[in-house]
Amino acid sequence: MTLRGRTAVRWIAWTLSEICVTAGALIVLFVIYILFWTGVRADSAMAGEIGKLRHQWSTAPATAPGGTPAPDAKPAPAPGARPRRYAPGASFAVMYIPRLGADWVKPVLEGTAPDVLQRGLGHYDRTAHLGETGNFSVAGHRRTYGDPFKDFPRLRPGDAVVLTDGTTWYTYRIDRRPYTTLPGDIGVIDPVPPKSGFHGPGRYLTLTTCEPEWGHSHRLIAWGHLDSTQPVAQGRPSALTG
């Protein structure tokens, strides 16, 4: 091989090695972004949503002495009336799951669009409201964007899932270990999910996330029922203080 030929081979080899090094660096940076930076941004966004809710609740119209609404308080809905729809993309509740950690607390927002799930858990908009008869259904990321449901498989029957909307505490109890299904199995959020073991109307909870941990070919489902409610004015429920 001539000198010119050997030089050309060396140049090609050097160029390919540079391309490989650059591609490797980009892959590493992308992984860091997925594993770290999306988590930092999501944690900040979730903290912001919770802070915003707590501020709203703390500045809500107070009740006048004797239990009567203050003059500027909004009128209560008529008995049997369905509560006003949650605002799309907005947070409306805070969820606690003691099994997933003493400091595990996440905001719940209306809708399950990607941008919503980057700021917290998402409520399936056509499912029941908190405490209503029906199936209050919530989705969350297993990994990335704060890893809210990273430890989802740890849920066990009897575990508490506690939510508050600023006026009431709702304590749901998990009824069975997480169930694996396919993404197209939308019956899991039906008012009475077919495979849940529930019989007839009730006040149910469905939590959904991805399976496997770093994939999305399947879904993990946890079902529960409403165990108790109490006014926020009476303090935190026993499931959070015991």
TrEMBL record:
Annotated region (Disordered) at: 59-82
Is Amino-acid biosynthesis given among the entry's keywords?
Answer: no
Matching entries from SUPFAM superfamilies are given as:
Sortase (SSF63817)
Query: CDD domains this protein is in?
Result: Sortase_E
Transport as UniProt keyword:
no
Membrane-spanning regions, if any?
Answer: 12-36
Protein origin, superkingdom = Bacteria
Output compositional bias ranges, type Low complexity: 59-71
Keywords, A to Z, come to: Hydrolase, Membrane, Transmembrane, Transmembrane helix
**Protein name as it appears in the record:** Class E sortase
| Lineage start | Bacteria, Bacillati, Actinomycetota, Actinomycetes, Kitasatosporales
